[in-house]
Amino acid sequence: MKQGWEIKKLGDLCNLMTGGTPSRSHPEYFINGKIKWLVSGDIHKGEITDCDGRITEEAMANSNTKYLPINSVMIALNGQGKTRGTVAILKTKATCNQSLVSIYPKDLKIILPEYIFCNLHGRYEEIRRITGDDDKDRRGLNMPLLRSIEIPLPPLHEQQRIVSILNEVFAGIVKAKANAQHNLKNAKELFESYLQGVFENGNWEEKEFGEVINTLTDYHANGSYEILKVNVELSQTEDFAWMVRSTDFENNFENNFRYTDEKGYNFLSKSKVFGGEIIMSKIGNAGNVYLMPKVNRPCSLAMNLFLIRLDEKKAIPEYTFRYLKSKKGEMQIRSRLLGMATKTITKENVRNIIIPFPQIREQKAIVQKLDALSVETKKLEANYQQKINDLEELKKSILQKAFSGQLNYGGHAELKPVNSHKA
Questions:
Q1: What is the model's pLDDT at position 377?
Q2: Is the C-alpha dihedral spanning 360, 363, 365, 371 positive or negative?
Q3: Residues with Cβ < 8 Å from 116, sequence gap 6 or more?
Q4: Nearest by Cα to 241 from 217, 215, 272, 277
Q5: Which residues contact 283 (CB under 8 A, 6 or more apart)?
Q6: Where are the beta strands (DSSP E) in 132-212?
Q7: Nearest Cα to 37, choosing from 5, 9, 64, 3?
Q8: Is 288 helix (H, G, I), strand (E, B) or coil?
Q9: How confident is the model at residue 136 (pLDDT cuts 50, 70, 90)?
């Protein structure tokens, strides 16, 4: 800690206040309301200038809501996803519900709101951990916890310099990050554009998918629900056979697998998986398509999926998978989904998907070109994603220096690494 700085609790330096929720049984509290009424989801962009919620003066008079000081630092006590612990500066006249707390200095000659914002924003992960194990713990922040947060307190002129430098540095980081994200988006779109062009420009014979399918099966082809319940036991503990689910593909086969024992695997004889099959979700995320990698262990299909094996004299899985993942293929699948809230797709509607099929030799050539482009595209994506990650680490490093008194005030040297990440 730099000489001359102090450590103070947030509650000693600031007034903390929250709002309330007017009674929903009084529609006149909300209809045609003009007073901005914030909730936790309104602060994710770091600055509040508007919100969807509005209440009336009558609602203010008959609830715990109150106007918040302009330039308050707003922090979310709870909320969905990553909301808890997010902060923003309030730049407009507003009130809030109980999910937000306004933090405002007791004395502006001692601490600046902008300095508080920079400090709390930079300690987002640390503040979330106050309540437990991040996303696994649903407990929210509360007033006593917020008041107990310790904050380094430099003299006012140093606070002003820290805020000024951080604003300049972070503007550079935001610009560099936007460039990297734009290039990442372009890299992904490059492959998608080429993929689309392949299937739009080919003058090939079209066939129903069913004409090239040898096997179209699922988990329930092995018996009724009651019979399966008796003969197949699923477990999260490593066992004889892996039960393939759509979440395994979505998670890149990294964790949370499901298994069955040897008896269950042998019972599921009609839905064994060996690799190279096309897998399609049939309910929920119906129509999502995956290509099963080769596996070196017993493997079977879990519920809610179709397993599709092709007649490889007519179609190769890699080509067919690429078509189904193209925009034309996805449109074909979407047009065959059934249901409103929960989408499903039937075996018959899978079979009648129309697919262009060139000769096998040309299918293989197309796959080779797409695979080569995919490799190069992934290299570009990895490069740009690494730049984005490096910029986030740079931001953390600068924040750590700022609030330990190590920030370089001369010439803003911290800006130099930002330029090196220009995409």
A1: 85
A2: negative
A3: 10, 13, 14, 73, 103, 105, 151
A4: 272
A5: 304, 342, 343, 344
A6: 150-153, 206-208
A7: 64
A8: coil
A9: low
